[in-house]
Inverse folding.
């Protein structure tokens, strides 16, 4: 029953991000409160949210990731606790990299992306992010939700 | 809707940054992991020196006793599991007796332990020697 609720919320966040590249604050709030209640309003839920927030804080402050991504990871972190939030976040970020690779080559910008990554490695600086069509922007909440779901069902522990 | 509000609910990231993010996170995690391993190694070194000195004073190079002394000095919260102690006593060129101790343990830092094991074994080894 709780797993169904978790899956529904994860799916809602992923679909919202996939379709609109946006996640409403209301949905994030529901996920966060659900997680805190599931943890029995204990310190574990808060710590999990904190870990999720901290994991993406530097890229968020550097404007690499959107506000919704960091908030979604913090909200799912509340469900998973600190250790689960760390695992789920890392898995999500890793899956995000794979998704980005797949999208780049499917969208026909593989060469361009490899070029910018090479330039970034040579100059040891953050890769420049050219403005692209919405369909070529990676919805990070999708892999994040997947990573957290994997942790939820104990695939990663 | 203001620009700021739009950014705050944005759930998207450029392809390049999505590729770079795992690398950035991996480097940060590896740094933390490395730091914790060094901290544990430092603690094990201190505990092994302490236990070796005790063994030298007692003139007893029994590894089981030395292991207990190391464990006591490390405390229960040290991230050092599978502690393995070997010891021997010898007489050096000056005719002085000494006890040699080697302590090995597996570091369990709690962070990235399973994720970073591909970087190599996290077993640390410390040697100590004390004349008596």
């Amino acid at each position: 029953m709780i797993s169904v609720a978790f899956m529904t919320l994860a799916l809602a966040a992923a679909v919202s991000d996939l379709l609109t590249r946006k996640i409403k604050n209301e949905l994030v709030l529901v996920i966060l409160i659900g997680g805190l209640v599931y943890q029995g309003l204990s310190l574990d839920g808060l710590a999990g949210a904190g870990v999720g927030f901290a994991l993406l804080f530097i890229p968020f402050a550097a404007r690499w990731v959107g506000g919704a991504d960091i908030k979604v990871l913090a909200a799912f972190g509340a469900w998973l606790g600190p250790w689960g939030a760390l695992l789920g976040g890392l898995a999500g970020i890793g899956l995000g990299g794979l998704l980005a690779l797949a999208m780049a080559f499917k969208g026909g910008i593989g060469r361009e992306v490899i070029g910018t990554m090479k330039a970034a490695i040579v100059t040891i600086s953050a890769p420049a992010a050219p403005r692209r069509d919405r369909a070529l922007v990676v919805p990070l909440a999708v892999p994040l939700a997947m990573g957290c779901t994997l942790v939820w069902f104990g695939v990663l522990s | 809707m203001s620009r700021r509000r739009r950014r705050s609910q944005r759930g998207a990231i450029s392809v390049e940054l999505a590729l770079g993010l795992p690398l950035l996170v991996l480097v940060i995690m590896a740094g933390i992991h490395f730091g914790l391993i060094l901290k544990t190694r430092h603690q094990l070194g201190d505990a092994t020196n302490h236990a070796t000195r005790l063994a030298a004073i007692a003139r007893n190079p029994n590894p089981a006793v030395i292991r207990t002394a190391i464990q006591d000095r490390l405390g229960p919260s040290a991230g050092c599991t599978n502690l393995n102690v070997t010891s021997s006593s010898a007489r050096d060129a000056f005719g002085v007796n000494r006890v040699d101790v080697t302590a090995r343990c597996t570091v369990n830092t709690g962070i990235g332990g399973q994720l970073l094991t591909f970087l190599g074994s996290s077993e640390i080894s410390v040697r100590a020697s004390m004349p008596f």
Summary: The beta strands of chain B are 80-91, 97-107, 123-131. Helices of chain B lie at 3-8, 15-58, 63-74.
